[in-house]
Amino acid sequence: MSWQALLTLAAMGLATYATRVLGYLLLGERVPGSRMRAVMQSAPGCVLVSVLAPNCVTTHPADLLGLALTAAAATRLPVLPTVLLGAAGTALLRHVLP
Description:
The chain is mainly alpha-helical. The protein has four helices and no strands.
């Protein structure tokens, strides 16, 4: 795996983590309303979708299978295991398939 890919994965993880932590730090002792909670809970998903969306228009079989694997995992698993499974599965599929 190239250093650019590792840097991209690290930045994605940091962005996801930052959306959670900054929301709680900015709110302090205040109790968020239902709309604010919905925004805070959906932000990591938005980061994930922005990374996965370009793969929806590819014709590479490994990317399409990896996308299907990620979508299937997202129906059963939390965000972090879904991301890890999707990234590892796609990497393995890219290695195996031409």
